């Protein structure tokens, strides 16, 4: 963040020296036009600083003096490069940034896969933990006596999900409201785990990334993350039973479908 602040200060300093002093003679914003104009500039400045920070985090170099010069030239419609050349160099920059992102992603993937494998290997030492052929690990916390879900059944569950470092990313318990959805809509690890649970059961599921979100980023869940869920199966219903309420509890289907609002068992 210190680098970002320095970059922003550099932009401000350059602009201050480059723009007529009369523009800053009156620092008070009194009229709506002044406030609207300032807002446009501030919004544009925030966007630029965010772009600069993101690129420098990937190791890309930015010449601030030249950047500010290009900005001012564009405002005056006096750019030193043709529009075609500008597009060419922006595309070149994009290719460089994408390559840097891939290197960073590959390193993160390797790190998360190794951490997940080590965590599951240690978890297997617990005599209460069982592992299926797919690699799913489960521990019975409470064994219920009701019916077991299958196929397109609709389930109502309470759950909390955590990363392997214990960071909790979702919990119906905190919202004090269970979630209800069709079994076929959830990630493979949940489909398999819930199929082992009679109604009234509570299991702890440790799900390898291949049975969770794989290479996707979901909320705070990084690519190829192993996940831990405590799942309480409250109710099992056949398809069509009271389906009008499905998916409306908790975070709603927007979050449940793996959006950036949060992470949960849905695909």
UniProtKB/TrEMBL annotation:
Signal peptide interval: 1-25
Alphabetical keyword list: Isomerase, Rotamase, Signal
KW Signal (keyword) present: yes
One Gene Ontology MF term: isomerase activity
Reaction equations catalysed: [protein]-peptidylproline (omega=180) = [protein]-peptidylproline (omega=0)
Residue ranges occupied by any PPIase FKBP-type domain in the UniProt entry: 152-237
InterPro entries named among the record's database cross-references: PPIase_dom_sf (IPR046357), PPIase_FKBP_dom (IPR001179), PPIase_FKBP_N (IPR000774), PPIase_FKBP_N_sf (IPR036944)
EC numbers for this chain: 5.2.1.8
Gene3D superfamilies to which the protein is assigned, alphabetical: 3.10.50.40, Peptidyl-prolyl cis-trans isomerase, FKBP-type, N-terminal domain
PANTHER family: 39 KDA FK506-BINDING NUCLEAR PROTEIN (PTHR43811:SF19), FKBP-TYPE PEPTIDYL-PROLYL CIS-TRANS ISOMERASE FKPA (PTHR43811)
Similarity comment text for this entry: Belongs to the FKBP-type PPIase family.
UniProt-recorded name of the protein: Peptidyl-prolyl cis-trans isomerase
Originating species: Shewanella schlegeliana
